[in-house]
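Think of the structure tokens as a kind of shorthand, similar to the way a musician reads notation: each symbol stands for something richer, in this case the local conformation of the backbone. In the example below we present two proteins back to back. Begin with the first one, reading the sequence and then the tokens, and try to describe in your own words what changes along the chain.
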Amino acid sequence: MKRAWHVALGLCVLGGVGTGAALAQPAPAAGIYACTDARGNRITADRPIADCVDRDQRVLGSTGIELRRVGPALTEHERAEMDARRRQQQAAQQRLREERSRDKALLLRYPGPAVHEAARAEALEQVDSVMAVAQRHLQELGARRKKLEAELEFYQDDPRKAPPQLRRQLQENTDFMQEQQRFLQQQVQEKQRINQRFDAQLDQLRRLWAGNAAARE
């Protein structure tokens, strides 16, 4: 009887140990997902990775051993569309950063309307200075032409008898005057471009100045 009781007790102890060991064992892990996305970033997560739906994802066990692989969830056409959207988003973000950078630089250069108007006046004054020099040169050419034409009057009966040097000087004078006139016209157009550029800047600056004023309030 005593022997039977010891046997039963031993079986109960063994059974208890077995039950405790079973309870102590951790639940098997679902796995860790790992991949390298389109930008070359290595990503790990405890669930499928959204940035890697277009490529294989490795499923690793708790020891780091690869358990299986999950293939792309998108078709080739869908992947191409996703890549195109990603590129468009990146381009839009880059443009936004560049616009903000330009706006910041514009505000630093022109903190107020008076500074901007002074810059416009200075730019136009520089062109006016260049035009003044060209106009003086044109006047000199005109005075020179009168002298040459006065010499040519001696041969008005037959201009072909005029010396070759005189004819050459008249032609050169004509060419120089035409060149100066074209240059002056280009400067007039340059002044128009300057005003157009400053007008466009002023429209943009008014919005930026207003935004800064609202932010300070």
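Once you have a description of the first chain, move to the second and do the same.
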Amino acid sequence: MTTALLVIDVQNGFCPGGNLAVAGGGEIVLGINALMADYPHVILTQDWHPAGHSSFASAHEGRQPFEIVEMPYGPQVLWPDHCVQGTGDAAFHPGLDTDRARAVIRKGMNPAIDSYSAFFENDRTTPTGLEGLLRTLGVTDVTLVGLATDFCVTYSALDAARLGFRATVREDLTRAIDLDGSLAAARDEMRAAGVALA
């Protein structure tokens, strides 16, 4: 068994004061840092949107953040502008130990498609390259932590399980947006897919 810790989007934009702040987002940083020592491989993901990304409400005239629209790849929540490339909002939380990271997987770079999962864009077919990296490293098991539980962490865990990795989400080291019951739905979906919630 070879394990990897996937640290999902622990960025200023998702922490208090950020453009898409998740309640308690900064509280998990020290625990994540402590957990890194238990894993031979630590991989960080980073939301890295171009300005004017199609998932931003500001890119759709008359639309408000958190409305849902239909995109060619399916339903899309419209978000406040966040994690724009090169901005402080997109930077990792200053307390996160990035020195342990073997790699940083940037996602959401395609202006036409959002990317919640660490493995695929939201069309569920365009890869980020993470699967190939994990296979090359001989990884069989992944533990996921970070932000936000009910979006990027869940999508990443579901894809990990679909690709044949044993996936565990450390819920104590995640925080959720919980948009209209999205956290309960995400937990149900992860359990049904065989993801362990710890």
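Compare your description with these statements about the second chain. The CA atoms of residues 47 and 107 lie 5 Å apart.
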